[in-house]
Design goal:
The structure holds two protein chains of two kinds. By secondary structure, chain A is mostly beta strands. Chain A has helices at about 5-10, 35-45, 110-115, 190-195, 275-285, and strands at about 10-15, 50-60, 65-70, 80-85, 95-100, 115-125, 130-140, 145-150, 155-165, 170-180, 205, 210-215, 220-225, 230-235, 245-250, 255-260, 265-275, 285-290. Among the domains of chain B are: about 5-80, no CATH class; about 160-200, no CATH class. Classes of the chains: A mainly beta, B mainly alpha.
Chain lengths: ~290, ~200
């Protein structure tokens, strides 16, 4: 990467467009009084309390995968707790891919309640476990809808459907089988402490989305509303490329690209996320030269 | 049922308009060789006319001969549904092609050089300009409509950015997955969603 481009990226930033929104909300400023809120809190915290392994079916438009998922892995090559997954219908003896634990900041359940309408729906049995359907309906057009079948006993998500606000299903997954184990007592709580410093809710960018990670040198910003995440990548645009925009959707994942001029430089902005196109556009709009102000 | 009875029954069907074309032809052949049957046909024809109009007109005109003439003449072919379809199609073609000719501006009708340079077969169609399909070539101007070059440029830019989006998804998908897994309640789903790992960039630190 040239020095010019590093300086250029340093001058760019994901500007604060939102006003003092819930960005500075103190930890857990809401009371979990309803059953859906408590079910949501239990779901968000499930990975810190249980260990499991199971087989998952994942489906989207032109793709169906069977996977073996293990949490936490005994042979993960890291001192922190990590999970593994194997794509069972991809290759013979598939290699294990490592995935990290999710970080659950305090107050996240309160934030989600501000941008999603949370409710509980019918029960059903999945993988031999009784579940209740937790429904997260977006309160605005900037996010997708989520239908989660939550294990009544453990709080684990045993099935999930991601859909457009209009109801069109984008993707789904479901456990065909799951086996729980106890977590060794010493490991409980370790991931949150280990990862807590790297993921923290930062400034608001567009309504409900906060910066949770940024790397100015690489031109990468990550925003989240507590459930959906979008990554914003900024790269140089070839000099001869015209301005324009384009997008592709794969399941729930949208990839949006925009070529534009920021100051005198051509910039390619790519937004990847489980968000609607309107959100990706707003995020691309939020990329401005640091000197130009919000 | 005797042969005569069957013929009389067929004759009644012909008179009532309920006989098919084959029965009609057989009846006409039969009347030409059987005077009794022909006389019966004439009588029935007269009775019908009398009942219908209360008078008998032109009693000397033999209806069967007129009918046979119609069937054996050129008009008979029109009754065949296949011929009818063919004629209908011809009329449609004539209307469409004639319409094209009318719609085309005079100067474009006279132009003969609208065929692409690219080697290939061209099928001449009566009343239409020869047009050759070729991959990647711009569309030829349609009658009465000028192609907007700005539109084309916008379309090309949109196609370019769509390809670029596909490329960025393949190359940056794993990095996004590592970031997305940090907040999703089912973190492994972020990795399942991402395109297969190949030449990926390092995860976001």
């Amino acid at each position: 990467m040239s020095d010019w481009w590093v300086r250029c990226l340093g001058a760019l930033s994901l500007c604060v467009v939102c006003l003092p929104l819930p960005a500075q909300v103190a930890a857990l400023d809401c009371e979990l009084t309803t059953e859906p809120e408590r079910a949501l809190a239990k779901l968000l915290d499930a990975h810190s309390a249980i260990s499991y392994e199971g087989t998952v079916l994942f489906e989207r438009a032109d793709n169906r995968q069977f996977l073996e998922v293990v949490w936490p892995s005994q042979d993960a090559p890291d001192e922190h707790r990590q999970g593994t997954l194997r794509r069972l219908n991809a290759t013979v003896n598939p290699l294990a891919e490592v995935w990290p634990s999710a970080f659950v900041p305090e107050g996240r359940v309160c934030d989600l309640g501000k941008f999603y309408s949370v409710s509980l729906d019918l029960s059903r049995v999945i993988a031999g476990r009784l579940t209740k359907k937790l429904v997260l309906r977006p309160r605005d057009t900037l996010r997708l809808a989520h239908f989660v079948d939550v294990d009544v006993q453990t709080g684990m998500a045993l099935a999930m459907v991601t859909a457009e606000p209009g109801g069109k299903v984008l993707e789904r997954f479901e456990f065909a089988a799951i086996r729980y184990r106890d977590l060794p007592p010493l490991e409980v709580g370790q991931p949150a402490e280990a990862d807590g410093g790297s993921i923290a809710r930062g400034r608001g960018v567009i309504p409900g989305y906060f910066v949770v990670a940024e790397n100015h040198e690489q031109g990468v910003f990550v925003v989240s509303d507590g459930w959906a995440t979008a990554s914003v990548f900024i790269e140089p645009l070839p000099p001869t490329a015209p301005s324009g925009e384009g997008a592709v959707i794969d399941g729930a994942t949208l990839t949006y690209t925009r070529g534009t001029r920021v100051g005198n430089n051509g910039v390619l902005i790519s937004v990847l996320g489980e968000v609607p196109v309107v959100t990706a556009r707003l995020l691309a709009d939020a990329v401005r030269s640091a000197g130009s102000g919000p | 049922m005797t042969t005569n009875e069957r013929e009389f029954e067929t004759l009644s069907a012909v008179m009532d308009g309920e006989a098919d074309e084959l029965e009609l032809r057989r009846m006409l052949d039969a009347t030409s060789s059987d005077p009794e049957l022909r006389a019966k046909w004439r009588r029935q024809q007269m009775v019908r006319e009398l009942l219908k109009t209360r008078r008998i007109s032109q009693p000397d005109i033999e209806v069967s001969a007129a009918v046979k003439g119609t069937l054996t003449g050129g008009n008979g072919a029109l009754r065949n549904p296949l011929w009818s379809m063919a004629i209908a199609a011809s009329v449609t073609m004539a209307v469409v092609l004639g319409g094209q000719q009318l719609l085309l501006p005079q100067n474009s009708v006279m132009q003969g050089a609208v065929v692409s340079d690219v080697v290939g077969g061209v099928v001449p169609v009566l009343g239409a300009q020869p047009v050759q399909a070729s991959l990647g070539a711009r569309s030829l101007p349609v009658a009465g409509r000028q192609v907007d070059s700005a539109d084309n440029e916008r379309r090309e830019a949109a196609a370019m950015y769509e390809r670029l989006a596909q490329d960025r998804y393949r190359n940056l998908g794993r990095r996004h997955a590592s970031a997305s897994a940090q907040t999703h309640p089912a973190p492994y789903i972020s990795y399942i969603r991402a395109p297969a790992a190949s030449g990926e960039n390092p995860p976001l630190q």
